[in-house]
Amino acid sequence: MCIRDRYMIMARPLEMEESYIWEQKLHEVKTERAPDTFWETETAIAILKVGCALLKLSSGGDHRYRHFFVTTDGSRIAWYSSSKELEESSIAFRDVTEVRKGCRSSLFQEEIERFGKSEHLCFSLVYTKEGDTRTLDLVAKHEREIDLWLIGLKALHSDATGRAVSKMTLFSHSRVFNAAMREKKIEESTEFVRDGLRRTPNDVIAIFNAIDVSTVTMEILKTAFMKIQKLLVELESKFKNESRLRREARIVYGQSLQEFEEERTEGAPKGKLMEDERWHLVQLTKSARARQSILEEILIIGDAAPRN
After folding, report:
1. What angle separates helix 39-50 from helix 143-160, to the nearest 10 degrees?
2. Is 0.70 topped by the overall pTM?
């Protein structure tokens, strides 16, 4: 027996062992479990409860950034709207039938020329309301953002419908995950979740590239930025005013906080009005700050971008 043949016989058991280890790890990734048993889903959902700004498509063409978040109990996805109550601007996960990635809804298809180049950032929630099938169509600002949203939404949908889910299903949409799996780097395939929504320079450029430059100019963006700055100043003033009223109620008039709230609500459930006001202020502030952050990055990239 030659040296080469001896080497092949010795190497074969090692190759078999590596193959066995890989098959075991792959089996674990494909095994369905309760969604809350994955550390990745717990991390992603915690991030989604804080929320971020996503572009919400409208059938009338009035697409706007809204602050989207998952409610504290994890039962609904919601967004802030100054003209709607929370029940009207939220969707229960028990009513969701599918979480989709890409421009597959009819609304996306109508504007495929505008959003086609950003299809990897587009996703939809298919849900039922009053017997009708509807879609909530959203566009993320960068790839890490859509990855975390889809991981969290898939997990919450599975939990609400009482179904187990595999890590393979949770991450099947992620290009980062799929690239790591092709290289058999299972341990590294989900590590990006730990970084949360932290953006990279490439992510910021993706935000800029996603803008319809034929309709949006730098002047329009700068005007919007100035309006948001003004809004934040007004909101800060409202917060200070509320704090002043609270201090006056407790100190100047000797009222307890509960008595103060009862007086303001005029017969409404204790503290309800104040809590509703505070919730709206907080959500509006989050939305304004998110839009400010987006515009700041767009303006920086836009000013540095070459002009045609």
Report:
1. 110
2. no
